[in-house]
Amino acid sequence: MSWKDFHHLDDESLLEYYHSTRSPNAFRQLYARYKDSLYRYCTQMNLTGADSVLEALWSSLLESPPQLHGRRLRSWLFIRTNSLLRNYAGQDPDSSQPAPMQDNKLLAGIQQLPRIERNILLLHMECELPLATVADIEKLSLKKCRELYHQGKERLEEIIHGSHRRPWRIEEVEEVTI
């Protein structure tokens, strides 16, 4: 099969085809679908460990097919990545690591969020996973996950734009006479 023949296959069928034939084109197609979103997610959660975590993820996927247990492959990839990030022996993702791009307010703001809020926001907004799947990844109730999502969004907005509760003040300017 050529590269173009794989576009019509869903992720699970493509993974099954890869593990039955070991076709590099099938794996390339699967990798191309998720490499960018997984990389962005990993770097925002733990910049220093992103490469190691992704290498471990793709290596395990190449070696043996994952047990999906009725889940979609997309969900499994992010669940597994999250697990690898939590077990990464490098720098603690909750420590105050420098933001990768200090001049980008959004990226710097995301790095200032607590780990759980940052993870929920990234999984839902960047990775486009439903909150129910995010709650499953974080082992939270859906209600608690929604609360943390809204709390994280509000905190991020406050970091980027400042507090909404701050009243406008006009400072008096004294005239200087010479």
From TrEMBL:
Keywords: DNA-directed RNA polymerase, Transcription. GO terms for cellular component: DNA-directed RNA polymerase complex. InterPro entries: RNA_pol_sigma_r3/r4-like, WH-like_DNA-bd_sf. It comes from the Bacteria. This is DNA-directed RNA polymerase specialized sigma subunit, sigma24 family. The keyword Nucleus does not apply. The keyword Transcription applies.
